[in-house]
Amino acid sequence: MTTFADTVDYSTLIPNNVGLAEDQKLRRALEKWYPKYLDWWKDMGPTGFIHETPFQEADVWLRTAVSVERDGWAKFDYVKMPEYRWGILLAPAEEGRVIPFGEHKGEPAWQEVPGAYRAMLRRLIVIQGDTEPASVEQQRHLGKTAPSLYDMRNLFQVNVEEGRHLWAMVYLLQRYFGRDGREEAEELLRRRSGDPDRPRMLGAFNEETPDWLSFFMFTYFTDRDGKMQLEALAQSGFDPLSRTCRFMLAEEAHHMFVGATGVGRIVKATAEAMRDHGIDDPYEVEKIRSLGVIDLPLIQRKLNLHFSLTLDLFGSEESTNAANAFHAGLKGRFHETAIDDDHRLLDSTYPVTKLVDGEFRQVDVPALNALNARLRDDFVEDCKGGVRRWNRYIADAGIEFELTLPHVAFHRQIGEFAGLWVSPTGEVLDENTWNARRGEFLPTDDDRVFIEDLMQQVTEPGEFATWIARPQKGIGSQPVDFEYVRIPATT
Length: 491
Ligand code: BYC
What we know:
Elements: H1 24-44, E1 49-50, E2 53-54, E3 59-65, E4 74-80, H2 118-138, H3 149-176, H4 178-190, H5 212-234, H6 239-276, H7 285-289, H8 296-311, H9 320-327, E5 349-356, E6 359-366, H10 371-396, E7 421-422, E8 428-429, H11 431-436, H12 438-441, H13 445-454, E9 485-486
Antiparallel strand pairs: 1-2, 3-4, 3-9, 5-6, 7-8
Helix pairs in contact: 1-3, 1-4, 2-3, 2-4, 3-4, 3-6, 5-6, 5-8, 5-10, 6-10
The chain binds benzoyl coenzyme A (BYC).
């Protein structure tokens, strides 16, 4: 049975539904962390101006979570980003919840940290927490080139919610891990995306997000890794982690919407401009670019880049870390409870794609060791819907071109395929050939210069840059030409 008593307490500095008002020690620890978080936000959050006004001073039409109930948890209003009410919100407790998988399957879910698994659990929470501020850092310059106020608002919404997701993990660290939890919470504010001395923990979170096409690809693919990982952690036998992740997933869905519709609107603008100017050949790049839109082959190269970087986030296809976390009941599979098996996996196998004698083949391996491969396969399936919708815009304009997901072995740094030279179509090449053809596969310096020139800030309500189509509807029951970011009047 699900209880829905969890209204959010807004009377405290930190909005929450975890009874912070009654837990003085925790409240003090979090209130001590808060100013450091705000310093981080001001240093590493969105930077730049709309006209003369810093983004941080503008009023942004943001949604804030005010309840964790299924309906009506979000409230829209103008908010200055540093005043956003970052809060600690857990999905409602499920009465009588049991551990759904692993060695402890069927035992009551843990409400406190199981001592034997403390280090493993802390590591999972820290890694999850580290990605959240990392993405804000990666995206901090994008407001300067926002193609509309609508998009600028979506960017800032994603940013404040990633900030809240950091809060979610910091709550778990501070509430359940004592002194080392507090130290980890500080470290989360110290690491920096791309910094050679104190980088973020996972590869893709140290890459740049230099432009809006990358932003939309990131929110489509990399936020979807977030979804898959959160779904796996939402199964956790450690109930506070499960409840935290379940609520985060509600916010994550909007981020993927931003990515899916963002890429779709770019593809649509290109396809329609080509059709309107009688261009059928997607490789007439100069002509297409002169229309102020992004050519489809470049969109494919960006897709190849972000998809492959994201696949690395699943870790090695075969992993004892993943096996241990599952066996312990800490991290499950995507839709664990809907899977029809014993949820222990001690005797089953899973087919993992491997390169055998120069060919990609499915090889059965113990299922417990193949959990990262399985989650990655679920991710690839989940990615397909958006790509199909993007291709519909191209077909509707009468253009022969299809965007495709590259082969899973393409451009990988982690796991089974690291060190191989594989093309997006899955041909195994040698290093020299691959490098000679790199410009076909991945964005080039020319692409970068072209995109940089193309991206200019648009701030008139209802206006959009040439390279992106208008969205079908607005946000939070407002029309598309609503003033989503309001610039304070200067005196
Ligand atoms: N980069 O057995 P292995 C999100 C390390 S995104 C660097 O292969 P494992 C979001 C690994 O740490 C979701 N290092 O992999 C999205 C280990 O190191 P140690 C984030 C890597 O452990 C957008 C060693 O290699 N959440 O929320 O089974 C915006 C061997 O590990 C990488 C999570 O990831 C890499 N790519 O799986 C905002 C969930 N991959 O310990 C937010 C929590 C592996 O030997 N994390 N390594 O020093 C996990 O479940 C797992 O740690 C991983 C790796 C899936 C990341």
